[in-house]
From TrEMBL:
<dbReference type="InterPro" id="IPR036291">
    <property type="entry name" value="NAD(P)-bd_dom_sf"/>
</dbReference>
<dbReference type="Pfam" id="PF22917">
    <property type="entry name" value="PRISE"/>
</dbReference>
<feature type="domain" description="PRISE-like Rossmann-fold">
    <location>
        <begin position="65"/>
        <end position="352"/>
    </location>
</feature>
<protein>
    <submittedName>
        <fullName>SDR family oxidoreductase</fullName>
    </submittedName>
</protein>
<dbReference type="InterPro" id="IPR055222">
    <property type="entry name" value="PRISE-like_Rossmann-fold"/>
</dbReference>
Length: 352
């Protein structure tokens, strides 16, 4: 029997990567997004996850064996994040229930499971690093927990297996994505090269000096496929990172070298939301001069999210032992993951 995948959020960094991975593995893939793009081997489905009748109609002809939940919607408060994002998960799982075909549901969340939501990010009593899956939930409201609870309840009711995947910051290519550090840094570095501005690290001194890790979208996609295909991985939550560690004071120079600029020495945090606040006209000028495909800088960058990640006042390192013990041994060098994203952005004429 051919595996039939339904990827929710198929136009995003993670959703597009897992869709391509599953096609390579010979799966039949349907990709749902509000504005799905045309991708070889992926059946596009357009629907609003907060409109149950429209969503049910859009999915009525499908009989997915596997559902991959790779999207979220940013709201003004954590209470709204919980309400909206839990509702989206519930609506999807309600819409696929009539088919009776679902065997596995994979949910992508992240390290805010350990660090807390944006309103309380990296504050209060946090678990020791490296973060391990057996560390329990924080005593704070968190939309990741609400998403998990929706999956767990549906699994108990409908009899499918589940997996939860917790990446660190994800690198990949997806225009218009709300959590897009690699593209944000590529645009920032390109502007620094064009204007001669110093390439300043936007985050905290702790992040500059401490060990950290990241997750490439293709590494996460391989992990999602592995968990969906490995019986021992059923009904488990997993951390997923590239497998290496680095310090940003090293990585910042690596990124600067790729763009042919010099990394400024760290002196104080320089958030990108402030540094790039007036860069829209500069980017529009660059788009015209270099023939770029996107002249609207706000479509490409998410400085608020990059600032949140790089501004954390604590070390963030992730343990991968649980996956390793069960057989997932893939590895991706994090600097090369950045370079691959930069090269793809340049190929698509999204940066000069």
């Amino acid at each position: 029997m051919t595996n039939q995948a339904l990827v929710i959020g198929a136009s995003g960094i993670v959703g597009s990567a897992v869709s391509r991975q599953l096609v390579r593995e010979g799966w039949a893939v349907a990709g749902l997004a509000r504005r799905p793009s045309a991708e070889p081997g992926i059946a596009p489905i357009s629907a609003d996850l907060l409109d149950p009748p429209v969503l049910a109609a859009a999915l009525s002809s499908l009989s997915p064996t596997h559902v991959f939940l790779t999207t979220w919607s940013r709201q003004a408060s954590e209470a709204e994040n919980i309400r909206v994002n839990a509702q989206m998960i519930r609506n999807v799982l309600d819409a696929v229930r009539p088919s009776g075909s679902v065997r596995h549901v994979a949910l992508v969340t992240g390290l805010k499971h350990y660090l807390g939501p944006f309103e309380a990010y990296g504050k209060g009593a946090l678990p020791q690093t490296p973060f391990r899956e057996e560390q329990g939930r924080l005593d704070v409201d968190n939309f990741y927990y609400a998403q998990e609870d929706e999956v767990f309840a549906a699994a108990a009711r409908d009899g499918f297996n589940w997996s939860v995947h917790r990446p660190h910051t994800v690198t990949g290519v997806a225009v218009g994505n709300a959590m897009n550090m690699a593209t944000t840094l590529a645009v920032y570095a390109s502007i620094c090269r064009f204007t001669g501005r110093p390439f300043r690290f936007p985050g905290s001194e702790v992040q500059w000096n401490s060990l950290t890790d990241m997750t490439d979208a293709d590494q996460l996609a391989r992990h999602l496929h592995w968990a969906a295909s490995t019986p021992a991985a059923a009904n488990q939550a997993f951390n997923i990172v590239n497998g290496d560690v680095f310090r940003w004071k090293w990585m910042w120079s690596r990124i600067a070298d790729w763009f042919g600029i010099e990394a400024a020495p760290f002196d104080a945090p320089a958030p990108l939301e402030q540094q790039m606040a007036d860069d829209a006209p500069i980017w529009a000028e660059m788009a015209q001069r270099f023939g770029l495909a996107e002249a609207n800088i706000d479509t490409l960058i998410s400085p608020w999210h990059t600032d949140a990640d790089l501004g954390r006042p604590i070390e963030v390192v992730t343990d991968m032992s649980k996956s390793r013990k069960l057989g997932f041994l893939d590895y991706q060098a994090s600097d090369e993951a950045f370079f691959q994203v930069f090269a793809r952005l340049r190929e698509r004429k999204l940066i000069p």
